[in-house]
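Worked example

This section walks through a single chain of length 199. The input is the sequence exactly as stored; nothing has been trimmed or padded.
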Amino acid sequence: MDFFAPPVEKLIEEFARLPGIGQKTAQRLAFHVLDLPKEDAERFADAIRDAKAKTFTCKRCQNLTDTETCPICADQARDQKTICVVTDPRDVIAFERTREYKGLYHVLHGTLSPMNHIGPDDIRIRELVQRVADEETEEVILATNPDTEGEATAMYISRLLQPFGIKITRLGYGMPVGGHLEMVDEVTLLRALEGRREL
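Given that input, the structure is written out below as tokens.
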């Protein structure tokens, strides 16, 4: 027996597909959207459409942007010889909140995960290697999450980059193992950045 009209059920289903959203939260979000004035609901829908249509990856670092080169890569005041490799765009935001890291980034958009059939060709490793080959990179900081997939990805990348003769470092472990960068507070993340080690 269906409790809601089909359009409401569909809306609940779509919210429930979002990461970290259970059935009850999906219902709350759906009913919140339905309670919005029509103009607010349309603005919300337009924001989703615009973000999807106008956002793509920076040709240099693979971070999300609405221009060919993201503002971080375009900022010549940043250290152009240091690249911090992160799993996804949320990790860039976490580092930027520290206000201490002044280098560039490279966003992988995932980690190696054989169990989920995610290999090197499924994430942006090739683009990173090409960057290191083309640019005057002196250090690559491997800042993937300290979990099994993040560690495997960091080790794989470090082996690929060793022939370039650059400094390859890993974040220090001021962060909880199994945690995710976007959940870590600024002080802990800063300590982890300061305590990074060479691989």
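What to look for: The radius of gyration is 20 Å.
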